[in-house]
Amino acid sequence: MEMESLQELYVEELKDLYSAEKQIVKALPKMVKNATNPELKQAFSDHLDETEGHVQRLEKIFQMLGERAGGKKCKGMQGLIEEAKELLEKDATEEVLDAGLISKAQHVEHYEMAGYGTVRTYAQQLGLDDQANLLQQTLDEEGNANELLTHIAESSVNAEAEEGSREEEETTGRRGDRQVQRNVATEGTRSRGRGGRGGARPSRSTQARAR
Ligand SMILES: [Fe+2]
Ligand SMILES: [Fe+2]
After folding, report:
1. What's the gap in Å between 51 CA and the centre of ligand 2?
2. CA atoms of 176 and 38, how far apart (whole Å)
3. DSSP for residue 197
4. How confident is the model at residue 207 (pLDDT cuts 50, 70, 90)?
């Protein structure tokens, strides 16, 4: 079907987001189950509740538009969730797995933020202010979830993951297969270095942002 208007593109993007949210609702319980850090477990669990709200908000918007919600599969989200599954299959310590789960979840949040920012702006352009407000509420929750993950990573999880590797080096005095794997998983933290805490400190909004 040829798309001829911003309104049609808006509906397409909403369907994409709807599919993404439904996939996240299915995937998040696995993240809750596999996270060890209690703060992280709670954050995933709380965001699962919020995500169910995101699905409902989108359903409300489809109702307002007189459009059908389904009919599209978000391949981007499918890929991100696939990557999270691959991480779960790896042989990693609890601490390193927690750090990795945060990374995967932040990729998801940023993907959602890009999508919601776009449709919110389309809704404003189309004069659909009630819908723009609903989409803004979800966008804010995605942003808060992302910031909380950054906080958890920086305040405890990354350091715990780093410590785990150092301890093993000290006790075994050698670097086995697991050791190498751990170093790869924490490289992001290490490469910014110890000085990174003060100097090249990651931004508040995302650990991943380059300076
Ligand atoms: Fe969401
Ligand atoms: Fe989210």
Report:
1. 6
2. 29
3. G
4. confident
Residue 94, C-beta contacts closer than 8 angstroms, at least 6 positions apart: 36
pTM over 0.90: no
CB 131 within 8 A of CB 61: yes
Maximum Cα interatomic distance, the chain, rounded to a whole number of Å: 66
Residue in 139, 123, 3 with CA at minimum distance from that of residue 64: 123
The whole-angstrom separation of Cα 77 and Cα 23 is 7
Question: Is a pLDDT exceeding 50 seen at residue 181?
Answer: no
Q: How far apart are CA 54 and CA 119, in angstroms?
A: 14
- Tell me the ligand closest to 53's alpha carbon: 1
User: What local confidence, expressed as pLDDT, does residue 176 receive?
Assistant: 43
Name the least confident of 17-21, 96-100, 177-181. 177-181
Residue 207 burial (CB < 10 Å; 0-12/13-18/19+)? buried
* 188 vs 82, more confident: 82
Can you tell me the distance from the alpha carbon of 101 to that of 40, in angstroms, rounded to the nearest whole number? 9
**Which candidate, 158, 28, 9, places its Cα nearest to that of 80?**
28
Give the Å distance between the CA of 58 and the centre of ligand 1: 10
CA–centroid distance, residue 146 to ligand 2 (Å): 8
